[in-house]
Structure formats: structure tokens, C-alpha cells
Amino acid sequence: TGWSQKSSLDMKLRAIDTQNAINDNKSLMQAEEAAIEKNYGMAQANINNISDPIVREKETRILKQKMETDNYDEMIMNGTAEEMRSVADTIEDPVEYERYGGQLDTGGRMAYASKLRSQAAAMDKQNGSASKLQKAYVTRQMRETAFALAVQGKNMDPKAVAELAAQGQILDVAGETQLDYALAMEYAPRLQAFGLMPIAQQETILRDLQGKTDTPDGQIVYGLYQARFDHVQQQANKDMMQLVSDSGMQIAPLDFTSPDSFAVSLSARKMPHDTGYATYGKSQGYLTGAEADQLAMVFDAADDNSKLAYAQAIYQGLGPGGASFFYEQFKEKGMG
Asked: Are 155 and 248 in contact (CB under 8 A)?
């Protein structure tokens, strides 16, 4: 009877051990799945359900090692070079590493320190190359911006050029742009004056400069003046009054508030128009392109009486000859 009772108890204990082993194995599998998904809290909770204290301690240590190496791998993928070097310093120092709570053996931690330093060095090299490219780009932007402003006859200073270059506002002009920044800045005032000269005088200066292109600087200076000449011709054909304004002549804005006000402000356009006509040999009307568009909108919105009043204002402000030039500007807008 005693033997029978002992045998029954052993069977019960073996059954309990078997069930514990099944449960422990299930908990271990669930912990491993959670760790793979980086759900470390769930992984640790499943490890805590393991009945065997030795296995439980071992799996806890393995999980901490995985958490640590996952953190290093994430830093290698997304960290900064400075962060990587700082962590590598900690890993390499045994005292600091223990204080950090690291779980890797000497070989493991030194291997990760090496990976971190290698990635930091690679990032430094990549960032250095990017910095050089950015610097070269800014230099090119500065040169091209200075060239564009000089060719347009703009008054400029280094700060204004730098601001425009930083914004990427490279202005569209004719000619080559591989020019020296300092020369473009130096010649800007002379190019502005050059653009205000009569066309025949500009052509004479160009021929003289063309004969001095036997040096690199001579070629650059000739290129600047030729580009300025080409730009002036293009703008004179496109929008002469805007060209006159860009060249430095003060032009009062037109007043569209009433036909009478318009007549008075339009009469003030005679002198700048005549100056532009004498300089460039062309006339595209008394308005800039933007003003012509604005007046077209005024006409479209006006009734017949208002349109007649504005037409009379044009004759009043410019006289018959000037009005003829004026209406040429509106043929393409259906207002002639």
C-alpha cells in the first residue's frame, strides 16, 4: 500500500513536471516571438512565466543582450556620428560599460564599438563630401547671381547678391555665366552706365573690347559687356519702359483711379519714353508690360463712356503722335 501511494505521488509529480515543461516551452516561444518584434515588455512578461528559475534567469540575460544589440543596430542605421562615437567610448571602457548596464562579453562589446566607429567615420566622410558640394554650389550661385545682376545693370552689394544666391534666385539673362565673381561685382556700375548709352556708342565700345580679348580677364570683361548689350536688346524689344526703369531712371507710377488722373500721370512718361527711344532706337509704348496688362483690365471692366474718357485721356496726356505710339502697345490685347 505504501509503495502504491508513493508510485501515485511520483506519477502526479511527473505529470506536473510535464505540464510545467509544456507551459515553460510555450512561454519561451512567445517570449522569442515578442523579442523578434521588439516588444520587449511582452517578451519579459512571458519569460517571467517560466517556472524554472535557472532558465528564467538565462532567458532574461539573453533578452537584455538582444535589447542592447538592437539599440546599437538602430543607432548605426539612424544615429549621428557624434552619438555613435560617444556610445563607442562607453562600450570600450569596462567601468563605464558596467555602469551603463551592458550585458555583452568583452568580444561582443568591442565588436560593436568597432562597428559604431566605422559607421561614424563613413558618415564623416559622406558629410564632408556633401559640404564640399554645397560650398561649390553656393560659390556657383554667387557667381551666376552677380553676373545676372551686372548684366541687368542693377545696383548691387555683396550682401544683396549673397541673399539672392541663397534663395536660388538666378535671374534669366543672355550670355555665359562661368565668370569671375569679383570682376562681375567690380564692373556692375560700369555696365549700368554702358546700358544707358546710345546703341551706336555701345557697339563702338564692344568692338574696342573685342580687340583686347588676348588675356583671360579681357575675355571675361568682353563677355560681360556683350551679355549686357544682348540683354539690353532683348529687353528693348520686349518691354522698353521696364528697361528704362531698370537702368536707373526714376519713373513715376501711373494713376488709374480716374481718366483725369491717368492723363496727368501719363504725360510724365514722355521724357523717359523719349530717352529710351533715343537710346535704344525702339518704342514699345509708354507703359511697362505689367502696366499694359493692368490698363487692359481697367478697359475690360469699364463701360463705353469710361472707355471713351480713358481714350481722350491718352490723347490729352500724350498728344496725337504719342497716342499713336501708345496704341501700338495694345494691338495684341485687342484694344487698339
From this structure: yes
* Residue 164 clears pLDDT 70, i.e. is over it: no
Sequence-distant (≥ 6) Cβ neighbours of residue 115 within 8 angstroms: 72, 76
Query: Kindly report the CA angle at 47 between 42 and 52, in degrees rounded to 5?
Result: 165
Q: Name the band, by pLDDT with cuts 50, 70 and 90, for residue 209.
A: very high
CA distance 208 to 226: 12
- Helix residue ranges per DSSP H, the chain: 2-36, 40-48, 53-78, 81-92, 94-100, 106-151, 158-166, 181-195, 199-210, 216-246, 259-267, 270-280, 289-301, 304-328
* Angstrom distance (rounded) from CA 151 to CA 145: 10
**Measured distance CA(170)–CA(235) in Å, rounded:** 17
pLDDT at 227 over 70: yes
Least Cα distance to 223 among 286, 262, 180 occurs for 180
Is 316:263 a contact under the CB 8 Å cutoff?
yes
